[in-house]
Give the backbone structure.
Amino acid sequence: MAPRKLAAGNWKMNGTLASLAEVDRLLADHPQPGCDLLICPPATLIHAMAAKGIATGGQDCHANASGAHTGDIAAAQLRDAGASHVILGHSERRTDHGETDDQVRAKAIAAHEAGLVAVICLGETEAQRDADQTLDVIAGQLAASVPDCATAANTVVAYEPVWAIGTGRTPTNDQIAEVHALMRDRLAARFADGADVSLLYGGSVKPGNAAEIFAIPHVDGALVGGASLKAGDFGPIVAALAASGG
Ligand code: PEP
């Protein structure tokens, strides 16, 4: 099995019920997208989004199955609302909420136990890249954030340089290739089906740069923030992924 191609949208804290019209448009424009499609809206929209027949994900879950955790959401609750996936360890969670690799790993285990695919995010800060620490940082996050129960069926790994998220800046193709090759090597060395885990790039993916990014070896798709909010932006990214070779 080859890694599945996945175009994933992260709506972050954006969107209301009215925003679902963008999903209608996306599905109308791409009835057979030619790759897997996933949208991770705010928790308030998961149920309605999933009812449209598109794969839907949460943006975080708690490591515990239930309990006194006001404001948090359990993996099984996401699943109950219709989610099939959950983003974990996004840099905005790591930064805004101080999430550690250990916590991300615990959440991924909870996600797997609830039957969700964990989309685990890794990424270096600009200071770490400038200090030539990128590969060490990514290798460390990968080792510590991805649990031993990961398989190609229940886990997706996203490389999202912190400095590229929402900034309009992207790494060079060679920089993306270097990190994706490292992630592929480490996953293949650790897991029986590690060669088949889908690897996403995320960070300022737009219609204008998507095809070039999808041509990079071991880039199996994208995790898209801002450009996933509008069908007119996300649609061309989906089409570029479907058209990409490999
Ligand atoms: C993200 O939030 O995961 C992301 C990649 O955002 P953007 O595409 O807006 O940079």
Observations:
- The two ends are 12 Å apart (CA to CA).
- Residues 135 and 178 are 8 Å apart (CA to CA).
- The chain has a mean pLDDT of 97.
